[in-house]
Specification:
Elements lengths: L7 E2 L12 E5 L4 E6 L2 E9 H12 L3 E3 L2 E3 L9
Antiparallel strand pairs: 1-2, 2-3, 3-4, 5-6
Length: 79
């Protein structure tokens, strides 16, 4: 039997029904699981180093993907 993961919600969670945020759970000291609250059956597994690299890159400033700007500010999804 596997132990249930202890999911933590993002600080950007809107606080209503809690289904518009990213959640993280630690599997080991270096392995993390990520999921979106609205699709909890889909998980991304990574280690701390690539996730930290991604977060540093996002915090460093404006970014582009396929020539389009990527926003790193939180914008609530309309209900």
């Amino acid at each position: 039997m596997t132990q249930a993961r202890k999911w933590q919600k993002s600080s950007f969670s809107d606080g209503s029904d809690g289904d518009t945020c990213v959640e993280v759970a630690a599997a080991t000291p270096t392995t993390l699981h990520l999921r979106e609250s609205d699709t909890p059956d889909t998980e991304l597994t990574t280690t701390t180093e690539p996730l930290a690299h991604l977060i540093r890159a996002l915090k460093s400033g404006p970014h582009q993907c396929h020539g389009l700007p990527i926003s790193t500010t939180h914008t609530p999804v309309p209900s």
